[in-house]
Amino acid sequence: MCVSVSPSSFSRAAFLGAGAVAALPLFAEPARALDAMQKLSAGGALPAVPAGLAPANERAAYLAYGSPYLAAQYHATEGLAKSIGDAKMRAAALAIIGDPTPRYARRYPTAESRVALRDAMARAGYVKASDPVEGIFPRGTEKRGIVQPFWSTPGSAADSHHAYPGGLMVHELFNATMAERFEQTYDGIYFGGRSKVDRDAVILAALYHDAMKTVVFQYNDDGTFTEELNIGDTGGHHVLSGAEAIVRGHDARFVTALLSAHAAPSLGDEKKVATWCAAAAMVAGVDPFAFGLLRRDASGEAVLASLPPIEAFVNFLSDHDWVLSVHAAHAVRPHLDALAPKHGVRAGDAAALAWWRLGVTAKVPTIALYHELTVGESAFAAAVARSEIMA
What we know:
391 residues; globular; mainly alpha
């Protein structure tokens, strides 16, 4: 959602009232849509690019910093986090957005301790014995202060959803916004408007559950991304984000809700969520049974400790921005590549092409480009051209 609002003047009513404006970049006439994206950054710029980033991460951060669209998304995200009523949850949301440096890694200060964790996870079946330790402890976990910003991180692997600088933030804002809508709908229809679903928890879970993509998906010099390790048969960021939540002091109910993003804890998928809870607890260095994530059933199998809360299902439902965004990424890329030579990208220079694509999509997100493509090739070409003069 795009919204022009300063953090200091943010209110829940203002955020909810921005829906019509927020939809404009996707559905307005192309030229007006792109103009609107620029105007929506009136809330201010992104934070300064931090010192000490790896060169490719720094390059991507500067691409994000130059995007009026991402500036607007940042202030909307920060504003939504500030609207969380519970002081502890509000502080947690702002902390993970402001500094996603993995604290779980501090529990493994030596190379030997990190290898030992990888080996223990392999014995438990969460990873392979041959998997690199760096899959659990990616670049940036060695010391504090060199992890790329939340606001410049891609949202997924290349050719998947939100694979551009700032894509993680856009994805999380969309999910958190949808989580709030689901909370309102459940409360309105099933509970007579009484607040039964925890609004604060579903917003925080949506903002939190992909937080470790900041280390899992980093930029390489050639414009590609680092590869993600699978943990427990899902993207490693999922389990690592659960571990980070444990280390940062969140309780078992919230961690269960967070780890339900990739599968609803029902219809047999409870086992998947229980596996991710166990793996996250192992990374965090806690006993999943003593912590309250798991219990033993009558057969001795490890299962979720209690009935999963409604917030877990809301987190799963809200994490479906990928349904359109993956399709959009696949549809848009070949058309971008075809236009690249007209924008000065030399044929055969894969790195230049990759960075050019990242620059375009940081200013006009892939879903917006996809909409222009459905309008026609000329609308798409105009959107790409206008992205290059945005400042």
